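Ticket #4471: structure output looks truncated?

Reporter: J.K.
Steps to reproduce: submitted the chain below (358 residues) through the standard prediction queue, then opened the result file.
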Amino acid sequence: MVGRVTLTGPPQHPPRLSDVAAQAHVSEATVSRVLNGRAGVAAGTRQRVLAALDVLGHERPVRLRRRSAGLVGLVIPELTNPIFPAFAQIIEQALAGHGYTPVLCTQMPGGATEDELVEQLEERGVTGIVFLSGLHADTRADPSRYARLTARGVPYVLINGYHPAIDAPFVSPDDGAAARMAVRHLAELGHERIGLAVGPVRYVPSRRKAEGFVAALGESFGLSRGQAERRVQHTLFSVEGGDAAAATLLDQGCTGIVCGSDLMALGAVRAARRRGLGVPGDLSVVGFDDSQLIAFTDPPLTTVRQPVHAMATAAVGALIEEIHDRDRGERDAVRRTEFVFQPELVVRGSTGPAPGDC
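Returned output as attached by the reporter:
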């Protein structure tokens, strides 16, 4: 879906104060004051209420409508992995709260490339761009494309994948910490042969997870770097990739597998069941992301939760600052760094004691 402005048609009934209040996390009285244009409401709170109206699909009262502050592009890899729509929803909501109109651009096989999407966004005069898991995360990609974007005066922020040659704000989860906490969890359950199924080595998040995993095996079991690296399987970030990697790790005798995404973890569960193995009785599996509905899989998936809301909100905030700096003719080098957010282990039913320790 390329260059799509995401809009929601207005419902046929007026907004209920309770619905708007719940969405904006304010009282019904505050919503009433905002809708009636009364004073005594902080600017940030007023924006939350207006954003809640937008998210719920209600038209703003005529006297409260304002001209859009501009278009902001959101470039994402795909919509099939549920973590990307989760990011998109929060980013779009945050942008709307600041008065910007989000333009969702999705890459797909055989479709427009990231560079082509950026060109289309520039033709539409976007005020800024948010990149999610784009070419900035690929160590084989040429980072000069972002320098050219900077030279043309387009503010942007990048999520998931740090590159030191790109002069822009980055927002990332601590991938290394995610891998370490997953390994520690399995080790505490008695697992000693633990493997990692992760994405292609050229991607920064894959490398960071692998580094954290190797370090954790050394800390927990005293494995050398070479020994630990043999437990790492680089494959595709997909169900099929997780299935293939798990098959290899099971052949190595692994009883616990840490995965680079929830989809890969579902593939690992499938590989185990194809061999007649139970999860978690014979194999424990840990995912990454905690994407929607993962808690309802069979078994419910233990995973490392990516702090999507905090990361998406921070990315929009950084972009707004970049836009303001451009408008003032300033550049703040302090913000051109990587903001790293801590993940959280969520224990569910796909992990249990190592076989023989039950």
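Triage note (M.O.): checked the attachment and the full token line is present. The chain is about 40% helix and 15% strand.
Status: closed, working as intended.
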